[in-house]
Amino acid sequence: MIFLKIYFRTCSKILLNHTNESYKNMAIKQRDGSYAVVLDAAITTPQELKKIAEVLEKYGVSLIKFSESQRMVIVGVDPEKVEEMCNEMGVKLANAVGRVVRSIKFCPGNTLCVMGLQNTIEMAQKLKKFDGMELPGKLKIAIAGCSNSCTEPAVRDIGLMGTKDGYTIFVGGSAGRKPRIGYVLAEKVSPEDAEKLVEKIIEFYKANAKNGQRLGDFIDSIGFEEFKKAVL
């Protein structure tokens, strides 16, 4: 039986202080003065969902939705009760806004999907270490297990698309207001080398990009070939 790791950890007090700058990355203020917070819950179990639902009902949460990045958005949260609520659920808040690594979106990969060619869940676990890292601009990562690209890796800052020979790595893509297809940085990359390459991309971007500059804009500013030489 395959064990699917659940990404729930206890909330940190410093992130839950809504007067603290760090908290601004963790919540989105609503029109009525309440907050929407994001739980990192891409993979869970019926038991965990039941526990979460019971706690949210206790705290009078008005709405739950799932974001396009596969995260659970809790709407209508009293900022004074966030820490207490999260501790009862035993969950971690995810970064909702800010110039940080925002999310790691992934499909089931070959763990569950008949089309999957790579173990995307394992890769997502490995890349989880970058979650919340402060950067010059926001950065989103997507991992797809095959060329169907259900997680849209070609339009993320860093995208990994699984093939029978490893991963194709995209960089500089984005959706939203300024959609763009990312550059193909490398192909037939092993899972081990893909993890290392993602780390090199993030480190180079962090060290050299201007404040507020997204990865794609940074690549354009120095030229793709120069960027490629620096990270490969």
From TrEMBL:
InterPro entries from the UniProt entry: NasD-like, NiRdtase/SiRdtase_haem-b_fer, Nit/Sulf_reduc_fer-like_dom_sf, NO2/SO3_Rdtase_4Fe4S_dom, NO2/SO3_Rdtase_4Fe4S_sf, NO2/SO3_Rdtase_FeS/sirohaem_BS, Sulphite_reductase_assimil
The protein's enzyme class: oxidoreductase
Single GO molecular function: 4 iron, 4 sulfur cluster binding
Parts forming coiled coils: none
Enzyme Commission number: 1.7.1.4
Domain Nitrite/sulphite reductase 4Fe-4S: start-end pairs: 99-231
The name this protein goes by in its record: Nitrite reductase (NAD(P)H)
Source organism (scientific name): Archaeoglobus veneficus (strain DSM 11195 / SNP6)
